[in-house]
C-alpha cells in the first residue's frame, strides 16, 4: 500500500511540474519582442552641437533602428536656448501654467509676431534653470509622429501634487496607447500614498514599468512588487563602461541581456569618445544582430496569461524551493551509487535534472521570473548540499579517524588547494561580480556561446562531471589505502557538477529552454572530459584496479 501511495504522489508531482513548466515554456516562446531605446536629452545635446533639428535627429534615430525614446521632464534650462519663445500659443500657455503651479509669480505671455514669449519681471531665468516644467507636449507629439514609443522618466517633483501628476500622465496616455515609465527616484513620485495610484495607472491600460536589472531605484522596486504583470526587465551599459568595451564585447553583452536575462528594454547610451554617427551605427548593428537571432524590434506584448502570485507562492514556495535545491543532489547521489559506474553516473544526472525541474516549477512566479524577488539562499544551498553529500559518502567514524591521522605537508597542500577551489566556486555561485572572473574567461565564454548557444557552466563540465565520472569508476574497486586514491573523494568533488545544475535552474529570470540546453551541453562536454580523464588515470596509475 505504501508503495502505491508514493507512486501516486510521484506521479502527481511530475504531472504538476510538467503542466507548470510547459505553460512557462509557451509564454517564453511567445515573448520575443525587444525595445531599443535612446535617451532623448543625451542624444539631443549631441545633435545640438552638430546643428541638427529635432526632426532630423528623430529621423536618424528611427532609420538606425531605435523604436522608443526615454523622455525626461523639461526644465527652464532647455527652454533658455529659445529664450522662452514658442511657436505655439498652446505650448506657451502650458509652460506658463507649469510655472504658476510652481509658484513662479509674475510670468506674462507676450505675442511677438507669430511667436509667443514668456517674460518675468526680473528678466533673469537663470536662478530657475533647474526647475522642472513637466513633459514637453510638442516633443511628445513629434516623437509619436516619427513612429517612436514613449518612455517617461518620472522624478520626484516637490511642486507636483499626486493629483496633478496622474492627471498629466493620463493626458499623455490618452494619445499614446503604448506608454512606459521609468521611476527615477527612491521616493515614489507623488508621495508614499501614491503607490496604489501607480498600480492602477499601470494595470488599467497595460502600460509598462521599466525595472533595470542592476541598481533599480527603490520606487521602481516597490511598484514592481505590487504590479509584476506590468513590469519589464531593462538593461543598459553606462557610458563609462562603454569606453572599455570592444564592439564585439558590447554586442555580446546586449545579446546576453536579452537571451539569458530576459531584458525586454535596452537603453543605449553614447560612449564618451563616440560621435552621433558612431552611436547611430551601434544601434543599427545591434538592431541587425537581434533580428538575425529571430528577435522582433517592437514594444512588448501585455502579459495577459500572468496572474498575481498567491500567498503560498510568495511565502511558502521559496522555502520549499530552497529545501529542494539542498536535498535534490543528495538524493540523486544516494539513488545513483548503487549501480555500475556508468549507470550510477547517468542516474545521478537524470535524478538531478528531474529534481531541478521540480524545484523550478515550485519557485517560479511573476515576482521571481522578473527577479523582483530573487531566489534567496543559492550559496547556502550549495554549501549544505555539498556537506550532505560528504556525510552520505563518509560515516562520522571515518571522518573522526581521518581527523586523528598524521598529516603530511603534501596533504596540507592538497587540502589548501581543494579549499581554495571550493571557496572560489562558492563565491562564483549566484551573481558574482565581474572582478572575480579570470581575465581570459569572458572571451572563452563568448566563444562557447557562439558555438553552443547556451554556454555550459565551467564548474559543471570542466570540474564536476569529469571528477564524478572518475570517482564512480575508482569506487568500483573499493576503498583505497590512501585518501587520495579513494573514489569517494573525487565523487564528493564531482558533486559540484550536479549541485551547479540545480543552481542553473535557480536563475528563474533566465528562459527555461536555456537552463535545459545549458545543462545538456554541460553533461555532454563533462562526460567527454571524464572519459578522457579516466583513460589518462588508467594509463598513469596502473596499480589501481579499475
What does this structure look like?
- The protein is built from 23 helices and eleven strands.
- It is α/β, with parallel strands linked by helices.
- Residues 431-436 have low confidence and may be disordered.
- The chain is elongated and about 95 Å long.
- The protein has a seven-stranded parallel β-barrel, surrounded by four helices. The protein has a three-stranded antiparallel beta sheet with strand order 3-5-4.
- The longest helix is centred in the first third of the chain and has 29 residues, at 2-30.
Keywords:
546 residues, 7-stranded parallel beta barrel, 3-stranded antiparallel β-sheet, 11 strands, 58% helix
In short:
The chain contains 23 helices and 11 strands.
Overall number of strands: 11
Major sheet details: 7 strands, parallel, barrel
Helix/strand/pairing category = alpha/beta
Note poorly predicted spans: 431-436
Shape: elongated
Q: What is the share of helical residues?
A: 55-70%
Please give the radius of gyration in angstroms.
Answer: 29 Å
**Within the largest sheet, what's the order of strands?**
1-2-6-7-8-9-10
Mean pLDDT, to the nearest integer, reads: 87
**SS element count, helices:** 23
Distance between the termini: 42 Å
Strand content: 5-15%
Amino acid at each position: 500500500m505504501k508503495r502505491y501511495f508514493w507512486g501516486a504522489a510521484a506521479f502527481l508531482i511530475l504531472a504538476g511540474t510538467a503542466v507548470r513548466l510547459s505553460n512557462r515554456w509557451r509564454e517564453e516562446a511567445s515573448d520575443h519582442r525587444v525595445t531599443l531605446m535612446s535617451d532623448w536629452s543625451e542624444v539631443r545635446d549631441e545633435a545640438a552641437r552638430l546643428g541638427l533639428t529635432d526632426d532630423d535627429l528623430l529621423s536618424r534615430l528611427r532609420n538606425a533602428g531605435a523604436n522608443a525614446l526615454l523622455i525626461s521632464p523639461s526644465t527652464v534650462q532647455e527652454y533658455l536656448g529659445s529664450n522662452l519663445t514658442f511657436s505655439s500659443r498652446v505650448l506657451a500657455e502650458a509652460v506658463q501654467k507649469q510655472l504658476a503651479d510652481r509658484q513662479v509669480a509674475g510670468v506674462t505671455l507676450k505675442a511677438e509676431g507669430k511667436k509667443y514669449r514668456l517674460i518675468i519681471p526680473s528678466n533673469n531665468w537663470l536662478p530657475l534653470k533647474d526647475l522642472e516644467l513637466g513633459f514637453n507636449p510638442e516633443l511628445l507629439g513629434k516623437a509619436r509622429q516619427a513612429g517612436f514609443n514613449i518612455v517617461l522618466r518620472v522624478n520626484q517633483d516637490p511642486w507636483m501634487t499626486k493629483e496633478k501628476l496622474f492627471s498629466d500622465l493620463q493626458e499623455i496616455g490618452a494619445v499614446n496607447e503604448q506608454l512606459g515609465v521609468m521611476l527615477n527616484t527612491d521616493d515614489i513620485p507623488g508621495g508614499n500614498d501614491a503607490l496604489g495610484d501607480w498600480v492602477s495607472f499601470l494595470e488599467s491600460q497595460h502600460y509598462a514599468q521599466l525595472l533595470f536589472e542592476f541598481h533599480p531605484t527603490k520606487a521602481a522596486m516597490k511598484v514592481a512588487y505590487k504590479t509584476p504583470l506590468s513590469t519589464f526587465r531593462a538593461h543598459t551599459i553606462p557610458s563609462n563602461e562603454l569606453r572599455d568595451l570592444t564592439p564585439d564585447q558590447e554586442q555580446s553583452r546586449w545579446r546576453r541581456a536579452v537571451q539569458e536575462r530576459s531584458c525586454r528594454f535596452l537603453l543605449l547610451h553614447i560612449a564618451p569618445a563616440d560621435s552621433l554617427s558612431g552611436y547611430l551605427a551601434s544601434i543599427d548593428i545591434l538592431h541587425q544582430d537581434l533580428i538575425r537571432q529571430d528577435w522582433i524590434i517592437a514594444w512588448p506584448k501585455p502579459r495577459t496569461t500572468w496572474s498575481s502570485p498567491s500567498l503560498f507562492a510568495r511565502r511558502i514556495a521559496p522555502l520549499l524551493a530552497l529545501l529542494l535545491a539542498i536535498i535534490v543532489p543528495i538524493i540523486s547521489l544516494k539513488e545513483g551509487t548503487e549501480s555500475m559506474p556508468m549507470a550510477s553516473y547517468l542516474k545521478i544526472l537524470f535524478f538531478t535534472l528531474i529534481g531541478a525541474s521540480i524545484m523550478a516549477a515550485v519557485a517560479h512566479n511573476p515576482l521571481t521570473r522578473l527577479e523582483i524577488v530573487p531566489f534567496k539562499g543559492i550559496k547556502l544551498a550549495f554549501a549544505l548540499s555539498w556537506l550532505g553529500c560528504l556525510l552520505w559518502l563518509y560515516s562520522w567514524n571515518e571522518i573522526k579517524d581521518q581527523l586523528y591521522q598524521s598529516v603530511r605537508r603534501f596533504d596540507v597542500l592538497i587540502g589548501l588547494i581543494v579549499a581554495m577551489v571550493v571557496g572560489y566556486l562558492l563565491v562564483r555561485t549566484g551573481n558574482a561580480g565581474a572582478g572575480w572572473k579570470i581575465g581570459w574567461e569572458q572571451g572563452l565564454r563568448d566563444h562557447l556561446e557562439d558555438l553552443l548557444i547556451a554556454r555550459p557552466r565551467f564548474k559543471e563540465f570542466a570540474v564536476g562531471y569529469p571528477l564524478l565520472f572518475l570517482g564512480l569508476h575508482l569506487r568500483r574497486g573499493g576503498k583505497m589505502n590512501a585518501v587520495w586514491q579513494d573514489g569517494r573523494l573525487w565523487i564528493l568533488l564531482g558533486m559540484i557538477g550536479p549541485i551547479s545544475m540545480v543552481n542553473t535552474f535557480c536563475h528563474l529570470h533566465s528562459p527555461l529552454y536555456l537552463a535545459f540546453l545549458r545543462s545538456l551541453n554541460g553533461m555532454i562536454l563533462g562526460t567527454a572530459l571524464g572519459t578522457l580523464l579516466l583513460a589518462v588515470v588508467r594509463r598513469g596509475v596502473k596499480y589501481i584496479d579499475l
